[in-house]
Design goal:
- This is C4-dicarboxylate transport transcriptional regulator, LuxR/FixJ family.
- Keywords: DNA-binding, Phosphoprotein, Transcription, Transcription regulation.
- Helices cover about 60% and strands about 10% of the residues.
- The protein is α/β, with parallel strands linked by helices and about 200 residues long.
- The protein has two domains: about 130 residues, Response regulator (Rossmann fold); about 60 residues, Arc Repressor Mutant, subunit A, CATH 1.10.10.
- The longest helix has about 30 residues.
- It is elongated, with a radius of gyration of 24 Å.
- The relative contact order is 0.10.
């Protein structure tokens, strides 16, 4: 995965430079592009962090770029920089899934704080997805019988009841249960239920 950073897309060089300096002064890694088209040419699905888009640009607008990225499955949080007259457009972008919009002229500290929140949100989402992928990978190692036993364990059933329901010995249930706990990396049925809840 790429280093998480703020990706600034703005066709005004002075604003790009000012924003770059502002964020670097608060130790936020930054990359910037002079147009939506330039960003799309460099876009990589492994990019992490968040996007700060000017809503109005020459060529493709920030809103069009947002729509294109959404269609491509980009999950990075998007914040829009807007002029006063663009607030209704920005609100409609929020309804489509943008994270936030900031009106120009903006308060420097407020803008940086919002971006840092968006970066933290993106990091949290990526960690959650990685955790889900890890649980799914462990589930894939279970045999069909181990899955059956796991389902009954999570339902709170005792080994004796599980043995009766599946028509196997209690010793066999104990062996399967031990394998499930080992493969899933848990020590108790409660822990098992908790990690299964993360993958629905």
């Amino acid at each position: 995965m790429c280093e998480p950073k703020l990706h600034i897309v703005d066709d005004d060089e002075a604003i790009r430079d000012a924003l770059g300096w502002l964020f670097q002064s608060r130790n936020v890694p930054v990359a910037s592009w002079p147009s939506a088209e330039a960003f799309l040419a460099d876009y990589d699905p492994a990019m992490a962090g968040c996007l700060l888009l000017d809503i109005r640009m020459e060529g493709m607008s920030g809103l069009e770029l947002f729509d294109r990225l959404s269609a491509m499955g980009c999950r990075m949080p998007v914040l829009f920089l807007t002029g006063h007259g663009d607030v209704p457009i920005a609100v409609s972008a929020l309804k489509k899934g943008a994270r936030d919009f900031v009106e120009k002229p903006f308060n420097d500290n407020d803008l940086v704080d919002r971006v840092i929140e968006a970066l933290a949100f993106d990091a949290g989402e990526r960690a959650r997805q990685a955790g889900q992928a890890g649980v799914a990978a462990r589930l894939a190692t279970l045999t069909q019988r181990e899955r059956q036993v796991m389902g009954l364990v999570v339902a709170g059933k005792l080994n004796k009841v599980i043995a009766d329901e599946l028509g196997i010995s209690m010793r066999t249930v104990e062996v399967h249960r031990a394998h499930v706990f080992e493969k899933m990396g848990v020590k108790t049925a409660v822990e098992l239920a908790r990690i299964l809840a993360t993958v629905g």
